[in-house]
From TrEMBL:
<dbReference type="InterPro" id="IPR011990">
    <property type="entry name" value="TPR-like_helical_dom_sf"/>
</dbReference>
<dbReference type="InterPro" id="IPR018060">
    <property type="entry name" value="HTH_AraC"/>
</dbReference>
<protein>
    <submittedName>
        <fullName>AraC family transcriptional regulator</fullName>
    </submittedName>
</protein>
<dbReference type="InterPro" id="IPR019734">
    <property type="entry name" value="TPR_rpt"/>
</dbReference>
<keyword id="KW-0812">Transmembrane</keyword>
<keyword id="KW-1133">Transmembrane helix</keyword>
<feature type="domain" description="HTH araC/xylS-type">
    <location>
        <begin position="439"/>
        <end position="551"/>
    </location>
</feature>
<feature type="transmembrane region" description="Helical">
    <location>
        <begin position="381"/>
        <end position="402"/>
    </location>
</feature>
<keyword id="KW-0472">Membrane</keyword>
Length: 559
């Protein structure tokens, strides 16, 4: 802390000295320039630090002379952007100080948000979250939708980091909807983060869709800054699909831009999943080389996250097969160190990570190896620590069970309150065509869809857009476009929701149907498999069929 304030004092003294010099040497032409011009010159001279320092200083001095608090904050923000990591937090503090002088909630909140982003970039997530929450407190008092969504985006990243993927997905979806027409880079960033969340919850197909969409949208918006990151994300996704060779190719392709951006976190993740892919291809020697690179970044930056824990499990396993007990012991100690950091940073997340080498096993192996050198026994506190960890784990499981029950109850109540209609969206007027489809064609197909829904033709098994288009004497492209426009969903989702609405109605009205198995319900609704029915029901109702039937039976008995 003392060192930080010392740096601040030195920076302040240097600024005052230089600003006095610059005031007496600013040419008249520069004095007449506005802030936009000065900002453009700051960006344009980024390769010439001496010239850039001139414009940075004059921008801030002009703002102070004008007593323009917004531009004073921007002046410090300019410094923050081009300063070293050690000075970034100091300039962020200066932004906050100046913003508070303005008594402008949006400006103060934005300054705290910038400080949080600095901490997040340094992987100091606790401090980042603290500042995001302060920023949210100020920004929520304003009507600045852009800043409100910017806070949501950054808090979503903390939720993702802690493993609350469903909550992160909800926030990132809001951000993609808002930023799509407001800010191209923020939109693409939100899409990328959304894809990462889908990967974490095991929805690899949807992750691939998001990555492909991100690349397409980048081309449409003429912004390719995130292209390599989408390829990187898809490489990791391919690893989870067991397509190891493809994973290696995609991740390797993205590494140069990641290194150029000095993104050590994604660099570490890249090496880990390339190593894991080689491991999956039964090439442990190649895998080890990448695992050791992850270890090097851990040594240099202290960066670790739950999935990277397996990096040390692999290294330990490698040296165990080589019977190299010295290195095995060394990396067991490394893994224990990583666990200690993870337990501090991820108190909620760590218990959810499957541990091949849990703490108890690690400590036992460590003691057995050390016994070869000094013949010491386990200390009793080790067992106490394991018991405490186990107790916390049980508490977490109980908490998650109760939390899920509460969520299911709310979802069930929502479904029961819904007014039963043939579709979720009212049919809109077909006075206009859709793209290349004229209004007459739209009107005909809408009437056919009404009859299709009313007659419950959606229960037919093996139904596809092609089959239905043939029945409607149309084509799949037109049919899908009209369904998406007037029902708000793709064809597969449209059919699945109609079927689930039908089943929900049956469950409400017929107690005999409540005795059906999932397999029988799937058959009744026309699903091709039990699993696809189970997934569709949960997606629509927000709870499993077993819970839904149980609650309906309770209502029937109490009634």
């Amino acid at each position: 802390m003392i060192k930080r304030y010392l740096l601040f004092a030195i920076a302040l003294f240097g600024y005052q000295t230089y600003s006095q010099h610059i005031e007496s040497n600013v040419p008249d032409t520069l004095q007449r320039k506005d802030y936009d011009y000065l900002f453009e010159r700051i960006e344009a001279t980024s390769e010439n630090k001496l010239n850039q320092a001139h414009y940075l200083q004059y921008f801030l001095q002009k703002a102070k002379n004008d007593k323009n608090f917004e531009e004073i904050v921007n002046g410090y923000k300019n410094y923050l952007h081009y300063s070293t990591e050690k000075l970034k937090v100091i300039y962020a503090d200066s932004m906050i100080y100046a913003a508070k002088e303005s008594n402008d909630n949006a400006l103060i909140g934005s300054a705290y948000l910038s400080k949080g982003i600095v901490y997040y970039g340094q992987k100091k997530h606790k401090y980042a979250l603290d500042n995001y929450l302060i920023a949210d407190n100020y920004i929520s008092k304003t009507n600045d939708k852009y800043l409100i969504h910017k806070v949501k985006y950054n808090i979503a990243h903390i939720k993702y980091y802690l493993g609350f993927y469903d909550e992160a997905i909800s926030l990132f979806l809001e951000c993609t909807d808002y930023f799509k027409y407001k800010n191209a880079r923020a939109y693409l960033n939100s899409l990328h983060s959304l894809g990462l969340c889908y990967n974490k919850i095991g929805n690899y197909g949807l992750c691939s869709e998001i990555n492909e969409k991100g690349i397409r949208e980048g081309m449409r918006l003429e912004n390719n800054e995130m292209r390599d990151y989408f390829i990187h994300s898809e490489g990791i996704n391919q690893y989870f699909k067991n397509n190891y060779t493809n994973a290696i190719q995609k991740i390797t392709y993205a590494i140069p831009i990641i290194n150029k951006n000095k993104d050590f976190a994604n660099e570490s993740v890249s090496y880990f999943y390339i190593g894991n892919s080689h491991w999956g291809l039964h090439k442990p020697e190649k895998a080890l080389a990448y695992f050791l690179k992850v270890d090097q970044i851990f040594d240099e930056k202290g960066y670790i996250r739950p999935d990277l824990r397996q990096n040390y499990e692999r290294i330990i396993e490698y040296y165990k097969t080589k019977k190299d007990i010295h290195k095995e012991l060394y990396y067991i100690k490394k893994l224990l160190k990583a666990d200690s950091i993870l337990d501090n940073r991820f108190r909620y997340l760590s218990s959810r990570i499957r541990k091949v080498y849990d703490t108890k096993v690690l400590l036992r192996d460590k003691q057995e190896i050390e016994a070869l050198f000094n013949k010491r026994k386990y200390d009793t506190y080790i067992f106490t620590g394991v018991k405490v960890l186990f107790f916390l784990f049980v508490l977490f499981i109980v908490y998650m069970h109760i939390r899920n029950k509460n969520i299911y109850r709310l979802k069930f109540q929502e479904v029961m309150k819904k007014k039963e209609t043939l579709s979720e969206l009212d049919i809109k007027s077909a006075n206009n065509g859709i793209g290349d489809i004229n209004k007459d064609t739209v009107g005909v197909i809408l009437k056919q869809l009404e009859r299709f829904e009313k007659d419950k033709k959606f229960l037919e098994k093996g139904l596809t857009s092609l089959k239905l288009a043939v029945v409607f004497n149309s084509n799949p492209k037109y049919l899908s476009k009209i369904i998406y426009h007037y029902r708000g969903k793709k064809f597969t989702k449209y059919i699945a929701d109609l079927r689930i609405d039908y089943i929900i109605t049956l469950l409400k009205e017929d107690y005999k149907v409540r005795k059906y198995t999932n397999s029988a319900l799937a058959d009744e609704a026309g699903f091709s498999s039990t699993q696809s029915f189970v997934n569709a029901f949960f997606s629509k109702a927000g709870c499993p069929t077993s819970y839904f039937i149980e609650e309906i039976n309770k209502m029937s008995q109490s009634g």
